[in-house]
Amino acid sequence: MNDENKDLNNENKNNNIVSQKHLRHFLDIEYLPKSLILDILDLAESFAGVSGQPVKKVPLLRGKTIVNLFFEASTRTRTTFELAAKRLSADFLNINVDFSATKKGESLLDTLRNLEAMHCDMFIVRHPLSGAAEFISKNVSQNISVINAGDGRHAHPTQAMLDVFTIRKYFKDFKKIKVAIVGDILHSRVARSLIHALRILEVPDIRVIGPKTLLPNGIEHMGVTSYVDMDAGIKDCNVVIMLRLQNERMNSSFIPDEHEYYNLYGFTPDRLQLLSKNGIVMHPGPVNRGIEISSEVADGDRSVILQQVSNGIAVRMAILSLSMQPQPDN
Length: 330
Ligand code: NCD
Fold this sequence. Notes:
Layout: H1 3-14, E1 17-19, E2 22-23, H2 34-48, E3 65-70, H3 76-87, E4 91-96, H4 108-117, E5 122-127, H5 132-138, E6 145-151, H6 157-170, E7 178-182, H7 189-200, E8 205-209, E9 225-227, H8 230-234, E10 239-242, H9 258-265, E11 280-282, H10 295-298, H11 305-323
Parallel strand pairs: 3-4, 3-5, 5-6, 7-8, 7-10, 8-9, 10-11
Antiparallel strand pairs: 1-2
Helix pairs in contact: 2-6, 2-11, 3-11, 6-7, 6-11
The site of N-carbamoyl-L-aspartate has 11 residues, from helix 3 and helix 7.
């Protein structure tokens, strides 16, 4: 892409930011200013308390209708978006595309037009194709916001936000930490969005670790260092994020066998001592025990995997509330 096209592209993406207090859509993380990311984290912090109250609701999105439009399986992301919307008092619809009219031949655009006719205010979209959420955002009417809940291997911006929210709970200063992401980087939208977020937050040492076949060519251009040796890669890290082998996105065999993979890249208890003294272990889920992580580590005291899930609700509440379009002035 030449510079002129790049500028145009950036301008286009920045149109998704209406103001620091308001987002048009939430599709990607790489174009967000650092100050906005920090504002979202602070807002999420204030929502975190709501889940602990006897009445777990605030009236911010009362009267709004939010739709989960999931074209791919999901447990954590789908349900935490649903809980986030409900805790903000929005009306909420789950469209399970497996059972919807799309299966009867209706086009995606027709499905969208019908949902628009029901006066929905926001679509939360998960889709196996990269770029699907952006496509939908360009084809909905002005008053509808689109949130990307994961598109192909491209981006998963709300997961990146909940990951940095979780990291900040343990390490206040992003400029002083070493972070490693381990496993199937090639097929991982989580890794891509997280790398962008960590770069924007000025994390000085970001590492990606995996077999050569699962490290994308040229990944260093994203500002990371790559390692094929797990022990060298996680040495002295404050945060290690483990990823699943995303077999459903693989079109051929990328590793010799799972047993061998576990020996080379599995987070076994003995590897814990390589981390910094207070180092933490994260995983976006779903966890495949005995393949990329042992049960002992996943359930151990360095693991913050379930905290990531809880934090997902507060972070998604913050993103939903910032992305809701204001009522036009009367
Ligand atoms: C991830 C996803 O769907 O990209 N999971 C998630 O959102 N919690 C990671 C994965 O599928 O491995």
